[in-house]
């Protein structure tokens, strides 16, 4: 066997190792129900949950709390996942500035007791993706 | 014909000319050996490319004229530019959109194509056939024509009316044109964003040249001659792309607030992957040139580099990353087109490789441990494995989309902690690169046997171990931990620097020449050390030490990384005392930021303000009270004074926040204080929303005479006088109108005085009041009434919460190693390009002979 063949074998082995490591680290999109089940099983892997913010009749967001003067590092809100499960989420960081305007929220983290502790919040703002609001289009009439 | 029609026509001409050129060059070279061409077809190919180039330039000029002329009837101008955008940012808004960035790429190909037509000689026809073929594909992406339901390309010359025909305004006024554009995303209003995208796209464009040579070589059966020109072009590509990537990193460091320069965002990875493969391919090319080995690898890697560039284009422009990336483009409905092209290029080039594979010469000699070639080869393999790992992870959203196409629902997501995931593997790639670059470089310039290897390696190895031990001790001394992978990276990084440096010194002593390779390798090793120090030992100094602890859910190991700074209150943070002292604006004509309290907003024009007092920097006065000046209202700068508790040294940072409607709210950018051995990096995490009305308490009424004192909650104030108001902005006073302004001095903390000027107006018989605010104290005073008979004046005073910012601050040790390493890497590429240009045909044996001669001398 030539040395290059040996090298090729090592490379293939390493490549397989890389794929396995990736598969092991990859996270999943789950619902809150599944997140709870995972946590109950002692699986502390961080998961992604996609959800929306609940609004009341006045179109205000419900269940959101942030008082920076009391504690700038504590932000809590309620997220409703695709199965319409409401869940309290805690984020030990300041509230993201454009939070209220977001249409969809993706959080990563895991369930601890009864709350979901998020360590990352990804916001999807409608205006960022669909450019359909034109300033002056109505004022000019 | 309107300007947009002219532009669209140019696009179509450029597309057709690219087709003609590709076909002409193809026919010119078809069925002939390299260097022999059919002159008539060649002429067609050349003419086609010339027409194509002119048409492309016409497209670019037209699009820029539309942006520059604020022609908002065009969607592209409206969605990327605005009335207040300075010209240099109009250049960046040109390529902010997908179509413009395709144009930038196309433009570089036009330039490179012109260079190749002059310099490629015998290679011209086959290389340019590939070139024009790629141009045809890129042009089709901005073609903007539809056949039935099939849409080909997205035109930058589409009108608002065509893009959004359902706007209600068009029913009433079909000729309606927006007054202002949406403007350039404020994060992109940065000088790095003016030069970084062109650099990156030049790098992208440069990868096409070696690819075209490789394909031409395969086509013509000239399997070795293409290496010579390909090396030089690959050096250009590697250098430009490498610098372009690091410019993006520096922009991110300066502008985005994730606290670093690299976030493993899919869009960043999409450029990093082809660069790694390109550099690996470059090494394989050099191996063939010197040692007649690695040619198959070189072919495969050069081809893969370009395919990866296309894959990167697909990733960032198809919308497939929409959920995973912060800065990918949106889907323009072109993903199908992109997939078709990507597949076509993959099938074509892999097919050609397979066709010629058996004919590509291989080395018969067995590589031993004493062959530097072996080490270079392993190094290139490590780079490819690193690229492979990033590719596998970055493509996770693609797998979901792919299996979804077959009706399988997959919920795979990118790793929750991406930094940890990539670091885990890329760190070892860094270790491999550092150590192999050192070994290979030391062995490259000499004949190797047991004795010479021992001699050359002893000194760098010993110095490395000494240095590493010293650093580890110092780190421990400072109470920091150093894990095994970190120790490995430190040691190999040091070895990479020292081994390459010792080789460089030897070369200089032998008066031969500098080695571009050694210089680049030192740069890379320094970059690795810089990353290790700045990322591995980045230290958050804004730990919340307020002592507030609530028995909330589970605060055990949660990081509380932000501090709240009240305006003008001193807060301790790490070794510093911090004071937030107010909000500032950028006034383009004044070299320093200007305190917002000095600027009175002008009604109906947020880009203008009136100076309340003299604005001066140092001794130079820029504006007098009452002057109108231009401001940039999107950005608010928060002035934060840092004072070191021990040394008493002071510096001021101005982290900024931007009101950015497109991004959905307020965005923060850091400010950085540079020291030689570390950076202090701060950004605001949150501020009271400046677009939101403040909550004012109910006004408390004071009826006073002149020189009376008003007792406000914590402060007191003296009402000095009432005087006619003249200069006050935006009142639009008529001849018979009356305006009176009160002059009240409020005494704040530490004896600070504030002049407050609320205005009382009678205009057209109507009473109006313009309140004045002291932001420092959270006070607002309105001038409510005048009783001329009694000489009494009524003021209303309301209060609000004091202004604050929430700040995050980090210390980044030795980050300068990263930036200086980047420069050295670029310098190394430049040296290599220069040397290869000067001595194109130094065969390896001859090079060795020169060295021996010099050694002997």
UniProtKB/TrEMBL annotation, chain A:
Main location: membrane
Subcellular location: Membrane
Annotated signal sequence range: 1-21
InterPro entries in alphabetical order: CcmE, CcmE-like_sf, NA-bd_OB-fold
GO terms classed as biological process: cytochrome complex assembly; protein-heme linkage
Keyword Cytoplasm carried by entry: no
A molecular function GO annotation: heme binding
Keywords recorded for this protein, A-Z: Cytochrome c-type biogenesis, Heme, Iron, Membrane, Metal-binding, Signal
A GO cellular-component term linked to this record: plasma membrane
Protein name: Cytochrome c maturation protein CcmE
Organism: Hymenobacter oligotrophus
From TrEMBL, chain B:
Record GO cellular component, one term: membrane
Keyword Lipid metabolism in record: no
A GO molecular function held by the record: heme binding
Transmembrane feature ranges: 6-28, 49-69, 127-150, 200-219, 231-252, 272-288, 295-314, 334-354, 374-392, 427-445, 457-475, 487-508, 514-537, 814-834
Example GO biological process: cytochrome complex assembly
InterPro entries: Cyt_c_assembly, Cyt_c_biogenesis
Signal peptide start and end residues: none
Keywords from the named record: Cytochrome c-type biogenesis, Membrane, Transmembrane, Transmembrane helix
Residue span(s) of domain Cytochrome c assembly protein: 98-318
PANTHER family named in the record: CYTOCHROME C ASSEMBLY PROTEIN-RELATED, CYTOCHROME C-TYPE BIOGENESIS PROTEIN CCMF
Family to which this protein belongs: Belongs to the CcmF/CycK/Ccl1/NrfE/CcsA family.
Full protein name: Cytochrome C biogenesis protein
Organism: Hymenobacter oligotrophus
